[in-house]
Amino acid sequence: MRHKRILIVLTVLVFVMIVAVGAYFYGQSVKNIERLTYLDFSEKAENGNVKVVYLTDSPSIGGELTDGTRFVTENPRSEDFKENMLVLGVRVEEGQRNSALMTAFRMVLVFGIIILSVWAISRLMNRETPTGRKDPMDKLTTMQCETVRDVGVGFDDVAGSEEAKESVKDIVDFLKNPEKYARMGARMPRGVIFYGPPGTGKTLLAKAVAGEAGVPYFAFSGSDFVQVYVGVGAARIRDVFKKAREMGRCVIFFDEIDALGKKRDGMASGGNDERSQTLNALLTEMSGFNSNGGIVVIAATNRLDVLDEALLRPGRFDRQVEIGLPDINGRFEILKIHSRNKPLDRGIDMKKLAHQTVFFSGAQLENLMNEAAIFAAKRGSKLIERADVDKAYYTVIAGAEKKDRSAISRLDREITAYHEAGHALVTKLVAPENRVTKVTIIPSTRGAGGFSVSLPPDRMYRSRKQMESSIKIALAGRIAEEIIFGRDNVTTGASNDIEKATQIVMALVKRFGMGESTGMLNYDILFQNSVASQEHIVEECRAFMDKYYRETSDLLVENKYLLDRIARTLLEKESIDEECLDAILSGESSEPAVPERDSESNRGTGTTFDKAPWTVA
Ligand code: ADP
To answer: Is the pLDDT of residue 142 over 80?
Structure first.
């Protein structure tokens, strides 16, 4: 529709231009013709100055003088006019020089130009660009998408999400056999929302639904529909559903649905009109199609609570399926899937690896196996060995190791060593159930100066003690710096730890009702409906934090000799694993010599060794 309108406007423009240009030239040609009185003309004819006369029946006749000037004069319409002229030696041509033939030719030319222009413009509008994409005009409202007729993915390729798979099995059956459900008068859900952390296999499961049902799969990202121009997003939505209807049975997948389906409250006007219109178009399309026709819409989001309620009403996305991080069994199964086509050395213990990968998403596990395969291939090995998996494990957690470490001062290395030793030691002292799989002072390319991996056990709930321990582990890095280098020399390296500790203490007080004086209240809900001051919440959090700080500090001062041992070993070896750490703590490992303390002037200027999320859990 839009294109047609543009086409008409352009055609009219071209036509007006042609008329204007034609009128101009006509004016110019009229200007060059001299109008003679009949007397002047007769005189010029007698003097032999007239070359030719075009004889017609019209009131004026034209001709050309011997000097090339064209003229018009009155038509005497006398019978002997032609003879008189011929006697005077003037050539007489009967009929106008700009004859009807000429006029017809001109008209054909003008229309030809118009038709050509219209054709050229319409060609231009439909033309494919060299990249194979449609012209921007088309791209605006037509959706480019990943359309796969045979996705080649089934439920066997999705591990660890048994409940999620179970809750979409009937949808697969429905897609295979919509009539069966229609006969029973059953209304299938029009839309399903998968929600959960990134990388947990939401896209994969949507593909698997299409794959199991053997129907085509259309994939879009919610952000494709958020446009600057009002109406474009809505037009795209309509385009998507039009294509889907043409396809018959299919799965439409919207990734990041929150980009277009966020709550609309308080932003009904202005720049958000576009999003509102797009969302309305989606709702209308979803309510509009016959659910028994065999189209299922699946959407994915990281957070369900940010979505507009309208999306979740019956008849829209009325089934919501949570897909969480995999548990130990899930991780084991996912690891098995992603090592199916990889030659693994027998020394690799998948169960152990599944234990070590708490908080890993499916995507990270896939990445882990892939990185290990890359390391093995780089070495030119025939098998993926344990060392490759170990290396990959730390790359996934913290990024690649920084190779050039020559610019790091000795003091910075020492601060990092004590900081990481603090985390590791306090983990061992307050949360012995956690696993400290690695402590390192090797900086990563992602900007971490070092890190220590502290993995909590797989548990459904977290206890208050565990949360307190997590806070203490997070604070331990800064406290170790303070004990060894003095209060004035602590660094910015603890910023990430402080952030995490604050998040935990806030949750403890505001959400879990574990505060001393704040009671069993959810303060997020409370503050939504009142303007009450949050001061006492801040006070409570501070009191907690000060208490944990004191306790951790006492613990580290008491065990300073262990802190020194770990830090010295780290300075010597750069990385230690759990076995080595346990040996240091039990006094079994031979103690490295005490390093001379660096007296460089940049002492305490602050290094940035932000932590990976696994530093504290
Ligand atoms: P999401 O859509 O939740 O962000 P994806 O489906 O894009 O996650 O997952 C990315 C990749 O991670 C998948 O292609 C797959 O290789 C791997 N993956 C994630 N979850 C699983 C799982 N449960 N089983 C097998 N592989 C998984």
So the answer is: no
